[in-house]
Write a structure and sequence with these properties.
Oligomer: single chain
Strand content: 35-45%
Low-confidence stretches: 1-30, 146-152, 160-176, 359-365
Structural class: alpha/beta
């Protein structure tokens, strides 16, 4: 490509760089004109190459060779409106071969576009043109009157000895003109911008503020001067480091535009990779993506201080369209809403990090993307009710996707996003794919978002393909992206792009390179990135197949996708045969990193294939090697065959479908009132039937009031990640029951706030469970603070009537009765328990494991095994305890400490028992205060590693303590 570009450059000889339109041609007003620049002052007394109406000089201006045209005094309208011509006769005519023909000279006509200066009380008018690096026989230049065919003046300039080879510059096309933009600003406002710049350089970041804009006047080419405002532009200070070439954001007043732009940026081309940004926008425009207008202009800034004007020559600058509805109009889009993620917090943190001497962020920068979509011209658009509706929709779409709640195909125009992402990969632009550089157009017709490329920084040679943000598991996007990767990395497209560059873009690129030789554009990276994209497609056929089940109608296979792109299953192929079975359409696509059960519906062809092998039908244990799964990258055709591993994974299957992993479904229940403002979920009172599992998400408060009677049927259960506020009355309690004896109860899991249950009655519920997951109690609270008052639990079918774990508790008034297994279970809980009544329990009344609790006023009666069971390093203080009819009334083990202040124990085989069953624990200790034993076979039993103390006396250990305390046979 490089050799082609150089040939094109050699064919393209000349560019005309326009200056500013004359400020004032009158010699009487020369004092109001800018002072003649130093580089031109010496020319006034120097002998020109030609002297006529215009004096013609040759100078070197930086890296540019210029022919300078100077005239003094009055510049007539005819002279201003006429075209100047230049004929260049190079020694080597082969440089002039174009379209297969050799020309004798290069001709260029250009409109006079002079700038007027004041010098020593006189007015001078200057125009110029760039001359390329060639050896010339002669240069012929002159001017034609507008509308006439005669020359106003003409002169053949023979190149003299000693200057027959101009200083090297790049040959640039004569087909492209560069417009001039002149900005007038008061010295005070200029100094305000300078102070802002100095502050930004010190901080390392430019932070925008409301009053940054200052008034300016803008003039472009021959257009009239327009009023507007201007501020510094850029986030990082690369836009500001040059002493006199800063980046600006300009807004014109009213509907005024410069080259179709009402809002635009002016910046040094190097801040956008010289010509790279222009190329990126033009490639996107070619592919019908939304693109910004991006041009190159020669910028002058006039600093006005009273009657004095100081002109700064900024040279060639990039002019970038700002985000305005005109972008959409220029890209043939209707509507005017453009949105992005608000970057303010991100840049503020970057500022704090730098001030703290750090070069990294304190937090993951992606967190600032959540919930912070904002619009360009937001304040103006909010005033329109119709636009406000569209704004709400667009904001909900992008934030819903960013938070993982909406799939890509419901939010974006998938084809546009895939195309944009693929082109960014081809052009070597990860920068445009960073979330805070993304801009989106809301299409009101499709209610979808389309990307708008910005700040590309093209030219990187990739080592891997880069994807659109949060697209890992987006099947629809992946399908479109694979297709786009295939198209835009193909040799045909790379060749097409090369031709597009030469025909449409090279002339502008040459202008930039003429000014900035360090900004050379080398398109080799495009070929490199296309190869990486092709390899990415070829390496993405990796998936694994395991057997799940088979019957007469279908085979179920679990397929795990290890590729970076979504896979599409095409069918089952027999050995030496074609497709024997097709996948169900609902499950044939598998996203990146996903594992899915794919159902293949068996055809008569499949059945006859296996029945013809001297057996009845398909047998996985024998026939798996005869089948292969045919798959491809979704969106393209690159079929691969994968064998079937003849094992299923029961645990994985059960795990993936377990209720504990299912999403919220609260909207399925018509007796729930959901208030999204107050974040409450309220059960409507009255008789209600729960006949399917209810999953309540975190972030709400769940309310039930007096009169609710909730009947758990058909194995239904409630899993809540939000706290409960169930509050009945004595006359009308909240009742939870199961009339069909199948209800699985209630589990509150990891609710941050405290649940409160008062005047609640629970009857005939079992422990919540589902496919390998289960809880300990018919009522379960895990890592969820709990307050109970006046609650009755009866006929529990769970392992425990109530189970509470890893939380704080406050219980006053709890009755548990008629339970075949255990009554109250606490694991790692802290708090106070009082007015507890436990009656008719099959195994243990109270079970405490590693708890710190104070128990007061407790009655335990008719217990199958242990009345109070205290395990593993618990600390329990008991007062006013009565235990009647149990096998072992109080039992503690393995480092627990139990203090009994006052208790009565009646009708028990063993009253008090203490053991240490594992050596890693400290000794177990039970301290007895006022305790009365009635009809107890053995008051106290302990081993040598435990102590039971009563009246300051230590009970003697028993040799067979463990056997004595063992369960009653």
């Amino acid at each position: 490509m490089r050799s082609c570009i150089m040939m094109y450059r050699n064919l393209s000889i000349l560019v005309i760089l326009y200056c500013f339109v004359s400020c004032n041609t009158s010699t009487n007003q020369s004092s109001n004109l800018p002072e003649l620049p130093d580089k031109y002052q010496g020319l006034i007394s120097e002998t020109p190459l030609h002297k006529d109406i215009f004096d013609v000089h040759l100078i070197t201006d930086g890296r540019i060779q210029k022919l300078i045209y100077i005239t003094e005094g009055l510049l007539t309208d005819t002279m201003k409106g006429s075209k100047t011509f230049v004929h260049l006769f190079p020694k080597d005519k082969k440089n002039l071969i174009k379209d297969g023909k050799t020309r004798s000279f290069v001709n260029r006509d250009f409109q006079a576009n002079v700038i007027s200066y004041s010098y020593k009380g006189k007015t001078y008018h200057i125009d110029f043109t760039v001359v390329p690096n060639l050896d010339y026989v002669k240069i012929e230049t002159g001017q034609r009157f507008k509308g006439a065919k005669i020359r106003a003046w003409s002169k053949v300039i023979t190149v003299a000895e000693g200057i027959d080879h101009f200083e090297p510059i790049v040959c640039i096309s004569g087909d492209q003109e560069v417009s001039v933009v002149r900005i007038e600003i008061s010295i005070d406002d200029y100094n305000k911008l300078k102070a802002k710049r100095d502050k930004a350089l010190k901080a390392g970041i430019l932070i925008g503020e409301a009053d940054d804009y200052v008034p300016v006047k803008v003039k472009a080419g021959n257009d009239a001067q327009m009023k507007g405002s201007m501020r510094l532009k850029g986030d990082w200070t690369d836009h500001l480091k040059d002493e006199e070439k800063w980046s600006f954001r300009v807004k014109l007043k009213g509907d005024n535009t410069v080259m179709g732009m009402r809002k635009f940026s002016l910046q040094h081309p190097k801040t956008r990779g010289y010509a790279g940004e222009y190329i990126a926008h033009e490639v996107c425009r070619k592919e019908d993506l939304i693109a910004l207008q991006y041009k190159f202009v020669h910028v002058y800034v006039d600093k006005v201080d009273g009657d004095n004007v100081t002109t700064l020559d900024f040279g060639l600058f990039a002019m970038e369209e700002a985000f305005d509805k005109k972008i959409l109009q220029n890209s043939n889009r209707s509507g005017d809403l453009i949105l992005k993620f608000n970057e303010d917090m991100l840049w503020q943190e970057r500022l704090y990090s730098r001030q703290a001497g750090k070069w990294w962020l304190l937090f993951d920068r992606d967190q600032y993307r959540i919930g912070c979509a904002t619009f360009f011209s937001e304040e103006k658009n909010l005033k329109d009710p119709d636009k406000r509706v569209d704004m709400e929709m667009a904001k909900n779409l992008i934030e819903g996707y960013s938070e993982g709640n909406l799939p890509a195909e419901e939010v974006f125009d998938i084809e546009e996003v895939a195309k944009f992402t693929a082109i960014c990969n081809l052009l070597g632009s990860t920068h445009a794919l960073i979330w805070h550089n993304l801009r989106f157009y809301y299409n009101p017709n499709t209610s979808r978002l389309e990307p708008i490329g910005f700040d590309y920084e093209i030219g990187e040679k990739f080592v891997k393909v880069h994807e659109f943000f949060e697209s890992q598991h987006q099947v629809a996007y992946s399908k479109a992206f694979a297709s786009a990767l295939q198209k835009y990395s193909s040799p045909e497209y790379v060749e097409e792009l090369d031709k597009f560059y030469k025909d449409k873009l090279a002339s502008v690129v040459n202008i930039v390179e003429a000014y900035y030789s360090e900004g050379k554009y080398d398109p080799e990276f495009i070929k490199h990135n296309a190869r990486i994209m092709q390899k990415h497609l070829k390496s993405n056929g990796n998936f694994m197949v395991t057997f799940e089940y088979a019957n007469d109608d279908e085979i179920a296979l679990r397929i795990t996708n290890y590729s970076h792109l979504a896979q599409e299953m095409l069918g089952l192929k027999g050995k030496g045969k074609g497709i024997l079975a097709l996948p169900n359409d609902t499950c044939k696509y598998i996203g990146r990193g996903q594992s899915k059960l794919v159902i293949f519906e068996l055809s008569s062809k499949f059945k006859s294939y296996f029945e013809g092998r001297r057996k009845k039908g398909f047998d996985i244990s024998k026939d798996y090697s005869l089948l292969k799964v045919v798959g491809t990258i979704a969106g393209i055709n690159n079929e691969v065959l994968k064998p079937i591993i003849p094992f299923n994974d029961i645990e994985r299957k059960e795990l993936s479908s377990s209720v504990i992993r299912q999403p919220s479904n609260i909207k399925l229940f018509d007796f729930l009132y959901i208030d999204e403002t107050d974040k409450t979920i309220t059960f409507q009172s009255g008789d209600r039937v729960l006949d399917k599992n209810m999953i309540i998400p975190a972030g709400y408060t769940v309310i039930a009031r007096e009169g609710l009677r909730l009947d758990f049927q058909k194995k239904a259960q409630i899993i809540s990640y939000s706290p409960l506020k169930f509050k009945g009355t004595k006359e009308r309690p909240v009742v939870l029951l199961s009339s069909d004896n199948t209800g699985k109860g209630l589990a509150v899991l990891q609710a941050a706030e405290k649940s409160e249950l008062s005047w609640v009655r629970v009857e005939n519920l079992s422990s919540p469970s589902h496919k390998g997951w289960s809880t300990f109690g018919g009522i379960t609270f895990f890592e969820s603070p709990l307050k109970i008052e006046s609650v009755i639990i009866s006929n529990s079918r769970g392992a425990n009537a109530i189970s509470i774990a890893r939380t704080d508790v406050e219980i006053k008034g709890l009755t548990i009765s008629d339970t075949k297994r255990n009554g109250f279970r606490g694991d790692f809980i802290k708090g106070a328990i009082s007015e507890l009544k436990i009656v008719d329990i099959g195994i243990n009344g109270i079970h405490l494991h590693n708890c710190e609790v104070q128990i007061t006023d407790v009655s335990i009666r008719n217990i199958g095994e242990k009345g109070l069971y205290v395990l593993r390093e618990s600390i329990v203080v008991i007062d006013a305890l009565k235990i009647e009819k149990s096998d072992v009334s109080i039992y503690a083990n393995n480092g627990s400490l139990v203090k009994v202040i006052k208790a009565t124990i009646e009708n028990a085989r063993i009253g008090i028992g203490a053991l240490r069953t594992h050596s890693q624990f400290k000794e177990t200790r039970i301290e007895l205060g006022d305790i009365e034993f009635k009809s107890v076979e053995t008051n106290s039993v302990n081993d040598s590693n435990s102590e039971i103390i009563r009246n300051n006396k230590i009970n003697q250990p028993s040799l067979n303590a463990s056997k004595l305390i063992g369960l009653k046979k």
